Amino acid sequence: xxxxxAKDLSKWYGEVIAxxxxxxxxxxxxxxxxxxxxxxxxxxxxxxxxxxxxxxxSLTVLDEDPWDNTKLLxxxxxxxxxxxxxxxxxxxxxxxxxxxxxxxxGQAAEDAAAGALRQVGLAEEQDRKVEAYSRGQRQKxxxxxxxLHEPELxxxxxxxxxxxxxxxxxxxxxxxxxAQQGKSVLLSTHVLPDVEAMTARILLLNHGRLMxxxxxxxxxxxxxxxPRTVRIATPDARKLGALLWDWPTVxxxxxxxxxxxxxxxxxxEFFAALQELLVKESIVFSSVTSPDDNVxxxxxxxxxxx
Amino acid sequence: xxxxxxxxxxxxxxxxxxxGFAMVLVAALAPVLLxxxxxxxxxxxxxxxxxxxxxxxxxxxxxTFTADIVNLKGDVSAFNATLSVGxxxxxxxxxxxxxxxxxxxxxxxxxxxxxxxxxAQPGVYYVLAEADSSDDIGEVEEFNNQVPxxxxxxxxxxxxxxxxxxxxxxxxxxNSTGTYDVAVTDLSIPSSAKPGDSxxxxxxxTNRGTAAFDGNGTLRVGRMFGTQFAALKDISKxxxxxxxxxxxxxxxxxxxxxxxxxxxxANGTAGRDTSPADNHVAKAFTVDPALAPDATxxxxxxxxTIKDFYLQILSLLHLRVLLPLVALFYAAxxxxxxxxxxxxxxxxxxxxxxxxPVTKFIAGYAVAAVAVVLGIVVTYLLLFGQPSTxxxxxxxxxxxxxxTLFVYGCLFTLLGVLVDRPYxxxxxxxxxWETIVSLFVPPVRQFTLNQHILEAVGGWSLNSVQWLPTGxxxxxxxxxxxxxxxxxxxxxxxxxxxxxFDV
Lengths: 306, 503
Known about the structure:
The complex is a heterodimer of chains A (about 300) and B (about 500). By secondary structure, chain A is an alpha/beta fold.
């Protein structure tokens, strides 16, 4: 049984095509749904959660049509994008409410709420109002809401967005743990390393089209063939530029006002060496960013600069 | 508890915060504040009382009417008080004489007398005493400002000298030697009659002579204009009377008002009357004006009374603007509120979709209804003081307000399900369509909810500019509104099942 099966699936809003003739079968386990903004990830997830109807083609989740299918939806744990709900309530109250809305009775709802809070590590925070939670805790709460009904499948829309590194690590471990318990997970994200930390299997969308469906390593290899841009913001741009000029990992270098922009074919080596250099030469810097270090950039490489 | 029950409780709870407080504040306090402002500027009450009018007057009589103007409540500044006498045409007094007095200041409980001198003329009149005749002061009660009393002025019975003279030629032929002596021995007229009454007039003719009388007996009723007699009814009859014989001439007539005369006379066609002086008799009588049973006193001018104000608050503020806007406030956010709170995707993927608009409607309606009932009850008590004044003035507005809240709530629930930004459309609908268009474009009135709501209460105190009845009647309007509400809410639930969401 596939957790999600699309056949010639399309979704358009007026003249804008969000999902374009996608045919795919997603097998149980963890699958990362990757793509830049506007790729069609959210539309695919909304159709999977019965919030939107396909414009053409068909979509089944757990072998059932999700449209107007409350029974099926209660077998799925859904973490939508956005903030946690019921922020004026305590974590425990919010979860109990979610459980009751899903059809659980009084004590069963309370028990499910307590269990889900323990599962995501928020048991100690259960009596605090959700509005007082950190961003990471709210993401965990959303995950706990999705777990209330012991779902077979979790559909997570940007579950790590806005989380601090600690929460991000916790959430990744939690999701991996859930998969080990036999739950299937379909999660969307912009960030490739987040997916890599959980699964090797990804589904790539761009402009509504299915670009790739397979192992992340294959995509990674593809990425490595193309140079990566790194921007180091520093007041000592001239000095840093001179030091980096003859590095073998640097393909090109450009000094800007207050920054050095480098292209490298081996980012891992470059970052390691750069860290040492900055410390050794006592170069003050305010940020090191890689505009390419997201799926949007991957797509640029994949689709030839599209 | 079912998912729908949980949703209902959650939605009810959502109203327990600032938003619910704001709605209660607006729905309950708006009419109360308006009423308070009205009461603050309408805190006095002057009244006319003790109007003294003789029950009957006689033509030409000089009379002085008196009345008291009393201040029942609050100190008042300058206002006019008027005492008038005149005839009523339609519902309006056409004064024959008026005395207007400026009362510059009057304390509570104070009383002033006003009077009017008049020389009575025959007819039916009304004496009208009026406090604040120029409507200079705002009063709690305007209905006690006027006291109209009828008065009838009777005719004076004409003197004998002013009556009709005997016609010429009653003595018969000057060359004749006949010896008859005809005389009007009796002239019977009604002792009392009202205008329009059927009365019988009879003249008795007797021949007192020694020869037979052959001639005419005439009976007439009419008015005198100077020395001329103008007959209103007359009859002549051939009489042949043997010596000592009598005969009568008679007719029935619907009498007219006025100072009238009846006369009878006999004149022979041959021979000579030995004593012609008794051939003619005239009698005066009066038919005095009387107040018709269906006579109506002059109607007070249209002024905003306390009940008018109450009904206008309800019909123009409540039913036309406030309640639709409150309904918009509580119902249109069916999706927008949940989107804002970030709860929509969680609800849509857990509960049956139709439960969201239905439970949100029920919760919002319940809270809004409490606020509206509170506002109306307090307004009623402020204006009328006690619950027993007129329960109909409380119960009907409550029921109609709840119906209004229901039908608009259902409509705006549908709007909230159909569009993402319902508030602007809703306000435009309430202000533009339900108020302005329905007021100034009469043909579309029947397509507004407000028209049918006002039909259900018969328009209350609204004038033809504010409301024009379509004639559908209260029961049909009521059923139509209930059906419309059910359709709107049903459509909301149906559309909710079909609608796609981008959350």
